[in-house]
Amino acid sequence: MELGIAGRWALVCAASKGLGKGCAAALAREGVNLVVNARKLEVLEATAAQLRALHPAIEVRSVAGDISRDDVRQAALAAGPQIDILVNNAGGPPPGDFRDWSREDWLQAVEINMLTPIELIKATVDGMAARGFGRVVNITSAAVKAPIDILGLSNGARSGLTGFIAGLARQPHLAGRNVTINNLLPGAFDTDRLRQTLDAAARASAQSSTAIAEQRQRGIPAGRFGSADEFGAFCAFLCSAHAGYMTGQNLLLDGGHYPGTF
């Protein structure tokens, strides 16, 4: 399917690996110019080179640094002529017991997983509306729909973003101007983040990470973990010209793991 977004400009956060890289790669294959961000310069530059190789006509500009910092956000926003597509993404806070988390831990989680996406949205959606096209995809977590007990920091911060988006996405000056804002809720995807969670569960249960992984996969109807490439393909469709009638939605990609009807 031709997605109708060739030549657009996208800002993809946490794009050097994992789900962010999968989204950036899918957009690159569609001819979308990219501004990619991640903390580590060397890894980001290597990813940028890989993305350029996916399509001969695109530009890929990299901005390294912590996107929760205002100066890094401003540099990322200024790296392209405009931002037509925004993919908000950030590594989640560490797992643990809420009794061990300080106020600073909570503030950091909210800063990274709620306030930073909101700042990027605020900086881009009015320009999108003025041009008559915009796509915002927030990568959150399946834990927003079905909380995971050891991921309380993520559960709380990402749920705050979800509530904010529910109101913003439906405002007529955005939805009526072909600007959509949706959330993608990944379940268990084969990423560094998943491996960290498996390692933590293994330490807590005195089992191996491999045993924990096999146990988790048996609980997923698809019988496997997802891949970053298939996640990216879904993200690219949400960013496409064909997805203008979908906004304010929380889209769960989890291989059927969530058992509810709604």
TrEMBL record:
<dbReference type="GO" id="GO:0004316">
    <property type="term" value="F:3-oxoacyl-[acyl-carrier-protein] reductase (NADPH) activity"/>
</dbReference>
<dbReference type="Pfam" id="PF13561">
    <property type="entry name" value="adh_short_C2"/>
</dbReference>
<protein>
    <submittedName>
        <fullName>3-oxoacyl-[acyl-carrier protein] reductase</fullName>
        <ecNumber>1.1.1.100</ecNumber>
    </submittedName>
</protein>
<comment type="similarity">
    <text>Belongs to the short-chain dehydrogenases/reductases (SDR) family.</text>
</comment>
<dbReference type="InterPro" id="IPR050259">
    <property type="entry name" value="SDR"/>
</dbReference>
<dbReference type="InterPro" id="IPR036291">
    <property type="entry name" value="NAD(P)-bd_dom_sf"/>
</dbReference>
<keyword id="KW-0560">Oxidoreductase</keyword>
<dbReference type="InterPro" id="IPR002347">
    <property type="entry name" value="SDR_fam"/>
</dbReference>
